Amino acid sequence: MDSLLEALQSGAAFRDRRKEHQGLKVNILFTFFFFFLNKAKIIMETFKEVLIFLCF
Fold first, then answer.
1. Is residue 39 in some structural domain?
2. How far apart are CA 38 and CA 44, in angstroms?
3. Alpha helices in the chain (DSSP H)
4. In degrees, to the nearest 5, what angle opens at C-alpha 37 toward C-alphas 48 and 56?
5. Number of structural domains in the chain
6. Range of the structural domain that residue 25 is part of
7. Which has the least CB within 10 A, 2, 19, 26, 48?
8. Cβ contacts of residue 4 below 8 Å, gap of 6+?
9. Which residues contact 7 (CB under 8 A, 6 or more apart)?
10. 10 in a domain, yes or no?
11. Are 24 and 30 in contact (CB under 8 A)?
């Protein structure tokens, strides 16, 4: 009974825990997206340098 009153007073009983997990998933997705975007940028810069070298 005490834990129920504590949850009601703190507002924990009314929190939507799904939103917290969804925010975490979005953060993880953005982290991976920017990581791979950075790797793709490095690959493209290297490829561009190789093309320039081969053309001259």
1. yes
2. 10
3. 2-10, 17-55
4. 0
5. 1
6. 19-56
7. 2
8. 13
9. 13
10. no
11. no
What pLDDT is recorded for position 32? 87
Radius of gyration of the chain from Cα atoms?
A: 24
Q: Which amino acid is at 7?
A: A
Place of tokens 């953060």: 27
Q: How far from 15 is each of 22, 25, 44, 50, CA to CA, in Å?
A: 14, 18, 45, 55
Quick: pLDDT tens for 1-44.
667 667 666 766 566 666 666 667 778 888 888 888 888 988 88
Name residue, tokens 């993880």. Answer: 28
Instruction: Measure the CA–CA gap between 29 and 31, rounded to whole angstroms.
Output: 5
- Write out the two tokens for 6: 């504590």
> What tokens were used for 1?
């009974």
